[in-house]
Amino acid sequence: MHELLPDAKELRVNQQLGRISADDIDKLDQLLLILPETPKPAHFRQLPDGARLAAAHRRSAPGKPAVTRLDNSKQTLVIAGFLKPNAEAHERLSFARKLVAAAIGCKPGQLGIAAIGFSRPQQGSITLDALSAALAAGFSLPTFKAKSSELPFRSVRLLGLRSKLDVARVRAEAKGNNLARWLTALPPNKLDARNYAAMARDLARRHGWQFTRYSTTQLEKLGAGAFLAVAQGNADNSASIVRLRYRPKRRTAKADVALVGKGIIFDTGGTNLKPFQSMLDMHGDMQGSAVALGTLLSVSTLKLPYAVDCWLAITENRTGPTAYKSQDVVTAANGKTIQTIHTDAEGRMALADTLVLASREKPGLIIDYATLTGTCISAVTTRYSGVFTNREEWHTRLQRIGVDSGERVWPFPIGKEFLQDLDSPVADLMQCSPNAAGDHILAGSFLAEFIDNDVAWLHMDLAASNHKGGLAHIPTEVTGFGVRYTMSLLMDAKLHEAARG
Questions:
Q1: What is the pLDDT of residues 107-120, one digit of tens each?
Q2: Looking at 274, 336, 360, 391, which residue is catalytic?
Q3: Which of the residues 161, 259, 285, 388 could staple to 264 if both were Cys, CB 3.0 to 4.6 A apart?
């Protein structure tokens, strides 16, 4: 494996059915206990030392966890939280994140999770959400300190279950999200364009994916002038578009889904240079590609029966004598000409050609991910991401997938009427409008012009890619938003099948 990839070691997860005994708890350093918002005395009687836990609940402030230590060999710390039985996914996941954070402060070796007092389906959902939070918190993002820190815990034990849970999906989603967050957090001198492509190649070898790298020379032959306009400011020819193919059956099968990711590994803004504060964290401008790659890893780990392509548009957006400029006119791979307006709108340029290449393969559905516009953050904050599609009738379904998965989205319109704001006197369309109003909608409308063959397409503007304090079950500011959403889209909503229909 490439030296910059995360350690493949995973947390151990054990499950135990039936009533929780004192011996069970004696093995734990910490126990996360989840009870209904208004627990009954009978709920506490199901637990060893339940009277102590009930007393801790009475002492706790309204809406706050009850915390106590048990008088056993490990002095097990019990953190009891109280949750509405009908809470939606985002609330459950956020609740779980906060409980796990309280446990991590004491560095448990073995963490227990138990949900008591809920129906069987509710217990299953709540326990899996708590496990999702534990798997996210138990993963360390890259650090280059001389002394490495220990993992917060070694294993997780699920207690008091009425029936065994299928944890494979939760583990696969965590694996994909952890990879997305890891890649996003790497410094830009470590995750440069060459290393990124090399890491993708190593992952392909490990997981049996087909790997193709389109160099700048090959992209010139393909006429990918929009991508190359962004790449031409780089000091070398390290930029590329990478295609990965997961084929569970026939190697030649047409893709059911194509995942496309914006991989701007550092964004200076180009000739229209960003100010310091806006440029500081622009090593994370490749998070869209990391989410696409993480989603592919989740799909592959579960061995889902879908053929999936993954396209990564990998380049920097540099300033310098060779960088592209305002008023340059370039030709994209589908022959459309683009008048450049602002060089910091580079993401849509890099994606345009990548979408052309992806849609030429005629997949059932294309999903692209990009940290694309500030106006989307202004519209929905960093708690939601924006979604855009050339299938307007999907808006309600897309929103519902967000509610059910806990990664919430808000649909926006796109279409020809918005292209009036991108009308160019010298080219087929402008890259963006000189006026910033509704730029997320204009960007989506721009990208739609590079979907060939009327392929069903969904664009995700990752406003929620970074959220201070974490989001849903993810404890870090870098969220990896999109992996869990896409797995719900494929496995629950099966929207890729609707696209084929």
A1: 768 999 999 999 99
A2: 274
A3: 285
